[in-house]
């Protein structure tokens, strides 16, 4: 069946990314916890902690099924109850303030033959925004999108700008990326198989992008001020994930596994009171980049 093929290919993506990140880190190893969900299905949570460059990273796979809670049925505007959902979710928090946080999610949801879709995306949250890194990141995402539809990148980039906007701070979480949801044949002009291939293509884009960004920045010296700024930027990441992130909400409302859902949070973050960077400092300049609609191509 199609959903079994999706789940199997997502498992392969998880395996490939974990192997590649262990090589890139050079020290850390992923620890795996296989879990089962009350109500149906389960997953493989893989966490790396205290690596050479990855302070805390999660590469999670899940394939769950069961009955949709009423709140989710109402949000999705459906009456059916029996759902299936599978995906890979990744968040990497580096220990180096000049290496960015990265997030990726690819997922498939199914209620029945008519009500099913793909979603996902990749976004980057640098503690310090470097233009060349940002352009490299967006260029690679555009290439991955253009392989399937030349309109995908601009549409999904705009959706990422909107989705990863921290309204109560009036700033974006980082430099965005791509975000898409509810992709199906009637809104993509692609077959279900093509959309799955697109989803896998996005998954396969993750590793070469992030290993390049690690290698560009991991050997740079940094100061205590930069380390403190990293903790401050991490707090914005926490705020977004707990207040706005739809994956977090879905996981909590469908009786998901708490440790897997909240693996996206960094090991340490700071909430200094009314932190205002010095005018024209690197920290101040980074804040100027945290806006919607920047053309990085």
From TrEMBL:
Coiled coil region boundaries: none
EC number: 1.3.3.3
UniProt cross-references to PANTHER family, sorted A to Z: COPROPORPHYRINOGEN III OXIDASE, MITOCHONDRIAL, OXYGEN-DEPENDENT COPROPORPHYRINOGEN-III OXIDASE, MITOCHONDRIAL
PROSITE patterns, per database record: COPROGEN_OXIDASE (PS01021)
Protein name: coproporphyrinogen oxidase
Pathway(s) where this gene product acts: Porphyrin-containing compound metabolism; protoporphyrin-IX biosynthesis; protoporphyrinogen-IX from coproporphyrinogen-III (O2 route): step 1/1
NCBIfam families documented for this protein: PRK05330.1 (NF003727)
GO terms of biological process kind: protoporphyrinogen IX biosynthetic process
